[in-house]
Amino acid sequence: MAPLDVGELHNFGYATKKKIESTFKTSTCGDLVKVSRGALQACLGEKNGQTLYNFVRGIDPRPLTPHQERRSVSAEVNVSTRIVGFCCGLPE
């Protein structure tokens, strides 16, 4: 966990990473282990501070659900109109 960046943790993205970097001058889990729970809560709020405090220590109390049914499947396809026109015999 020590070399991981906070931005790579679940629920903690770019904005949180920037806030932590500006407050503690670091964003790696190994460095944040040295930060107190109170300091993290003052920076991120009570709930997020507690969650990050646990995560950097490898603690995640959420239940593991290995065979969870998938809710949705999506796919994104970007096709150039020039390619479509060429394949369909349309003028450019």
Write up this protein.
With 92 residues, this protein is mostly helical. It has a domain at 6-55: Orthogonal Bundle (DNA polymerase, domain 1). It is 45% helix and 0% strand. It is globular and about 40 Å long. The mean pLDDT is 83.
Concise description?
The protein is an all-alpha fold. It has helices at 14-24, 29-32, 37-44, 46-55, 81-88. It is globular.
Question: Which tags fit this structure?
Answer:
single chain, DNA polymerase, domain 1, 5 helices, mainly alpha, 92 residues
Q: What is the average of the pLDDT values?
A: 83
- CATH level-two architecture of the domain at 6-55: Orthogonal Bundle
Tell me the major beta sheet: none
H/E order of the elements?
Answer: HHHHH
Based on CA atoms alone, the radius of gyration comes out at: 22 Å
Strand coverage percent = under 5%
End-to-end span in angstroms? 54 Å
Structural class: mainly alpha
Layout of secondary structure:
Layout: H1 14-24, H2 29-32, H3 37-44, H4 46-55, H5 81-88
